């Protein structure tokens, strides 16, 4: 609920609250038993997330960002001369 409150009051990220958290909050309040929440908490605690498990080309995207940042840094350095 704390995460939902944070996202709900952000100018850009409020949409993530609507997409990800609204249904989860409704399910939690209406349907989830203490046992189900305890099991879910254990599964989340023990979960391991890697860049590859996300399904996006994160390492490739990071490389592109590093190239852009390096180019911007070179431009800043050349402005100093």
UniProtKB/TrEMBL annotation:
<dbReference type="Pfam" id="PF04925">
    <property type="entry name" value="SHQ1"/>
</dbReference>
<comment type="similarity">
    <text>Belongs to the SHQ1 family.</text>
</comment>
<protein>
    <submittedName>
        <fullName>SHQ1-domain-containing protein</fullName>
    </submittedName>
</protein>
<dbReference type="GO" id="GO:0051082">
    <property type="term" value="F:unfolded protein binding"/>
</dbReference>
<dbReference type="GO" id="GO:0005654">
    <property type="term" value="C:nucleoplasm"/>
</dbReference>
<dbReference type="GO" id="GO:0000493">
    <property type="term" value="P:box H/ACA snoRNP assembly"/>
</dbReference>
<dbReference type="InterPro" id="IPR007009">
    <property type="entry name" value="Shq1_C"/>
</dbReference>
<feature type="domain" description="Shq1 C-terminal">
    <location>
        <begin position="2"/>
        <end position="58"/>
    </location>
</feature>
<dbReference type="GO" id="GO:0005737">
    <property type="term" value="C:cytoplasm"/>
</dbReference>
<dbReference type="InterPro" id="IPR039742">
    <property type="entry name" value="Shq1"/>
</dbReference>
């Amino acid at each position: 609920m704390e995460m939902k409150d944070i996202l709900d009051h952000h100018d850009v990220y409020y949409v993530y609250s609507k997409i990800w958290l609204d249904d989860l909050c409704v399910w939690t309040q209406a349907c989830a038993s203490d046992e189900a929440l305890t099991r879910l908490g254990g599964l989340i605690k023990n979960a391991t997330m890697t860049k590859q498990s996300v399904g996006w080309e994160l390492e490739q995207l990071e490389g592109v960002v590093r190239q852009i940042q390096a180019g911007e840094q070179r431009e800043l350095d050349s402005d100093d001369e």
